[in-house]
Amino acid sequence: MKTAVDIAEAVRTGERTAAEVVEEHLGEIERREPEIHAFNLVLADQARQAAADVDRRVAAGESVGRLAGVPLALKDNLCTRGLPTTCSSKILDGWCPPYDATVVERLRVAGAVFVGKTNLDEFAMGSSTENSAFGPTLNPLDTSRVPGGSSGGSAAAVAAGFSPLALGSDTGGSIRQPAAFCGVVGVKPTYGAVSRYGLIAFASSLDQIGPFSATVADSALLLEVIAGHDPLDSTSIPQPAPSLMEAVEAGVDGLRIGLIRELLEGIDPDVAARVREAADVLSAAGAKVEEVSVAATIYGLSAYYLIAPAEASSNLSRYDGVRYGLRADASDITAMYEQTRAAGFGPEVKRRIMLGTYALSAGYYDAYYGQAQRVRTLITRDFDAAYEHFDALLSPTAPTTAFAFGAKTENPLAMYLSDVCTIPSNLAGHPAMSVPFGTGDDGMPVGVQVLAPALGETVMFRVAGALEAAATAATVMA
């Protein structure tokens, strides 16, 4: 399967047509999608029309953008004008947004071809894509296992070859963890580096949109396209998109990289072994690698599961059966509210709404939500202290490889632990990404997480590029 970089170049030069590229990918979707269920909606007709428009513009000598003819999958919590956007929830039944998310607009301008809206844990709340109202997505590498979550559909779409690129959202690891489980690259940018306008909110101070791809260079290209200031998002950082493509092959000679001690504790031995091998590879490539303590990261999970549900409780209060989506018939308005929300939300969403409402309630706000925010500040300070001595940090992406369906559904706390390594970056607002690096004892992919300080994407991609090059070389040697 060609990379997005190769496809876009071939389409721009006329070596290939966008129509040919799209038909190849739609054929792969037709072959495996009934088994995998990566999509809530396949956009075959729209994709063919978009590809035909790209080819027309190429023939006319017009500019077609940096992603000319590249098939791309969108997580189904990104608004797409006139198309269903469900968040994999019954509560948004029948709703079609009247506008596009900013990232969707930027991708259209860049010539990307949307092939579908991908499945997710309902409202992005989950780590396995088992919480979707439309059924689970399967891991294309082993269909008895989960693809991770909440962006499991996007990760699976790239891993299955349905599209070379996909977008997801990451609130506590929802891009990086499924990327690790499916053996692809997943990137959570700096908070505010990519516009959240048109992303249906879960936890507004944590949510961030980012790329999935098969290669580090493809993620760099996609992030360059979607990043940059957006006046429609009040949290958008007022500076242009970073230049990342050159960083991928810049190497790590002279970089200082810290291996986070706390995030190696409680990790499966085979996963920890791959991370230490990754550290050795970077050292051999010229980086100075040492263990480092970022002590407050051990409190990340506890703080997150107060802050995120509290924000979710507030954000999801808008789904009341009045303005859009599902509406249950009832004798009075109070009963209508109750019955609509009872029917529209799944068990995990209800659990988090109740937890968040409790944390924000009178008498408990300071003890729980306020304390969690203080812990968040402590985590950020500990990261800042580490970055005074290191350019980037390293950890596992997830404590295990992809687990079997049903293995953790009866124990929410065990499921939440899947994000123990990824959550700290969201709390701090820092960028982080998962890079495939070898396999575990079960033969499933292991993801190594590269972390960097705020707006440190350039150095992050340097490290990721070096890890990918080493992993590719190791595969070739094998």
From TrEMBL:
It is an enzyme of class 6 (ligase). Its EC number is 6.3.5.7. GO terms for cellular component: glutamyl-tRNA(Gln) amidotransferase complex. It catalyses: L-glutamyl-tRNA(Gln) + L-glutamine + ATP + H2O = L-glutaminyl-tRNA(Gln) + L-glutamate + ADP + phosphate + H(+). The keyword Transferase applies. Belongs to the amidase family. GatA subfamily. Keywords: ATP-binding, Ligase, Nucleotide-binding, Protein biosynthesis, Transferase. Heterotrimer of A, B and C subunits. The gene is gatA. This is Glutamyl-tRNA(Gln) amidotransferase subunit A.
